[in-house]
Amino acid sequence: MWGWLTARSIARGLPLPVADRGGMRVDTGLPNETRRHVFAGPVPGIRELAVSIDVPTIPIKMCCPGEQLLALVPSGWQLQPASYLMIHDGSFDDTPVAPVGYRIEVVVGRPANAVRIWTDDGFLAASGYVVEHGGFCVFDRIAVDGAHRRRGLGRALMAALGATQTSSASRRVLVATEAGRALYLTLDWTVCAPYSTVLMAAGDM
């Protein structure tokens, strides 16, 4: 499991995950998230970890249904909106085509490649990142502006990101929101597991 988390951290310029309490910890150091704890499944250390946390900036995440994770932590923790760990094992044949009125820009970078879709008049309508590392190809921060949805930009963006992949052996992975999951299912991605998050409620500090 942890290969994709490492690649995702690289894509976001974050410290690499380290082992902690039967899972992994990423010391993000962000204003709204000082660190995050990620677990592949239930382990005894989760409740002890939750008890030790006294700020609402340290999420606990686990590949499981939200209710299962919520049952492992004390009262005062809140379940966050659902997300999903998704994989793609399809063919390596991406052909990005920009819808009429848009153009695709691919920026090859280190560590992450970026794709941006612009309107003909210079508005950023969609963007995303992808990084290939350790046998995984992680798609990240996929976004389509609300005013430009349902125009084929999501499909074009995903194809352009996929076209930067250098090895067909790398397994494609992403974390999807509920809305994103609907799009990715139409592109032959499959749900590997729910990816649930809990946070301590701010009023319970």
Structure description:
The protein is an alpha+beta fold. The protein folds into two domains: 2-84 and 194-204, no CATH class; 87-192, Gcn5-related N-acetyltransferase (GNAT) (Aminopeptidase, 3-Layer(aba) Sandwich). The protein is built from five helices and 13 strands. It has helices spanning 2-11, 45-52, 66-70, 153-163, 178-186; strands spanning 18-20, 23-26, 36-39, 60-62, 77-79, 83-88, 102-107, 113-119, 124-133, 136-144, 171-177, 190-194, 196-200. Strands 7-8-9-10-11-6-12 form a seven-stranded mixed sheet, sandwiched between helices. Strands 1-2-3-4-13-5 form a six-stranded mixed sheet. The longest helix has 11 residues, at 153-163. It is globular and about 55 Å long. It starts with a helix and ends in a 5-residue tail after the last strand. The mean pLDDT is 92.
Number of domains: 2
The CATH H-level superfamily of the largest domain is Gcn5-related N-acetyltransferase (GNAT)
- Overall pLDDT metric: 92
Distance between the termini: 32 Å
Give the beta-strand count.
13
Order of helices and strands: HEEEHEHEEEEEEHEHEE
Q: Please tally the helical runs, counting DSSP H or I stretches of 4 or more residues.
A: 5
Q: Looking at the chains present, what oligomeric state does this protein adopt?
A: single chain
Helix content: 10-25%
What class, by secondary structure content? alpha+beta
Here the CATH topology of the largest domain equals: Aminopeptidase
Can you tell me the CATH class of the largest domain?
Alpha Beta
